[in-house]
Each structure stands twice: as structure tokens, then as C-alpha cells.
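Open question from group meeting: does this chain pack into something compact, or does most of it stay loose? Before anyone orders reagents, we agreed to write out a predicted structure and look at it together. Recording both the input and the output here so the notebook holds the full record.
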Amino acid sequence: MAKNYAVRAGQRISTRHPFLYHGEGFHGKGHLWDLSISGWRSTGDHPVKPGMVMPVYIELPPGEGESECLLIDSAIVRWSSGRDAGWEIQTISETSQARLNRFLERARD
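C-alpha cells returned:
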């Protein structure tokens, strides 16, 4: 049986940053890896399942006048294996999107 693959919206940047995620009845924390404009891969202390949707806070080094926390209003878990998972951004404010774009541009340089 053939597997279907989706093309990523952006190049992934190898990085490691703490993040917090809040599901129904739990709070998890972990580290994200391979960050892109559309999502990331992570390892967390609370397992998640594909299809779960929740807000996420990513800790990024602040730029001038920026907060340390970047809010993703909603992200969906696309795959999971134990404590590892792949997340896709569903809803993000224009301000947070611009901040994420700036961070990724700096990381590519």
C-alpha cells in the first residue's frame, strides 16, 4: 500500500527550544526540533495523539522588544510515537507569525 506524503510549506531549521502545550485536562512541556514556518517535531513529557488540537507556547530567544514566549493559538498533532510528535500550526496571530518568520530567517543566516 502506497503512503501519501505532504510537501512541507517551509524548510525545517534544526533547533532545540522549550515549549509548553495545554490539552484537555493536562499541561505538557518538552523541546521542539526541526522548526519550520508550518510546524515542528518535538519530544514532550506528556504523550499526545494524532488529531489533538491545542495552544502551544514556544520559548524563543527574544529579539529587540519581543517577549520570550511565542503563542501558537492552535496546533494539531499530525503524528506521534511515544513521547515524540509532529505538529502543524493551524492558527497563529499575524504578530506571532511575523516573529516566527524573523526567528527562522535569523537561524538560516
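Observations to bring back to the group:
The two ends are 40 Å apart (CA to CA).
DSSP finds one helix and six strands in the chain.
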